């Protein structure tokens, strides 16, 4: 599949057809989706848009439920859940607001699932997975940066020799390579390129 403009926060699925990662929109998936403006609203009380996601908040005396609703429950308050809870047959169970979170050993707080190390996250060949609390995103591999060139988003090689981010010795030449660089001692000098004598 070829997308002429590339897909900033998404994957190319067909000719000029981007499939955006959750929380992003637009032809090239370069715009943040304001979930708070969606109908029906994702949160019952208060909603705050974030980059690629959103957060729900409840008014005082209410607990946040996983579906974005706010419930007034004394029993839930007594259990002191981090995000929200449900009562099933008189039993109070804490809940987590995202599929990227799981209930911790104490049964009250939510801990992050690292989608990058569990293999649940799939990033395209020149991007690497970055875990976030409750989710993940794909960013360019080390030695590459996201650039909008010739009308599309791409991960392009960083020329460390030009940007002066190499660590070559004063008496060495910097040679750029895809995603990296090499140092070679100049004529009359010997060493690794990082050290030349």
TrEMBL record:
InterPro entries named among the record's database cross-references: EGF (IPR000742), EGF-like_Ca-bd_dom (IPR001881), EGF-type_Asp/Asn_hydroxyl_site (IPR000152), EGF_Ca-bd_CS (IPR018097), Growth_fac_rcpt_cys_sf (IPR009030), Nephronectin_domain (IPR052235), NOTCH1_EGF-like (IPR049883)
First and last residue of the signal peptide: none
GO terms classed as biological process: cell adhesion; cell differentiation
Localization terms from the record: Secreted, Extracellular space, Extracellular matrix
Keyword Lyase: no
Domain EGF-like: 32-71, 112-150, 157-195
Acyltransferase keyword on record: no
A family per Pfam: EGF_CA
Domain of life: Eukaryota
Gene Ontology MF, one: calcium ion binding
Keywords: Calcium, Cell adhesion, Developmental protein, Differentiation, Disulfide bond, EGF-like domain, Extracellular matrix, Repeat, Secreted, Signal
Principal localisation: secreted
SUPFAM superfamilies named among the record's database cross-references: EGF/Laminin, Growth factor receptor domain
Family designation: Belongs to the nephronectin family.
PANTHER family linked to this entry: EPIDERMAL GROWTH FACTOR-LIKE PROTEIN 6, PA14 DOMAIN-CONTAINING PROTEIN
UniProt name for this protein: EGFL6 protein
Organism: Pomatorhinus ruficollis
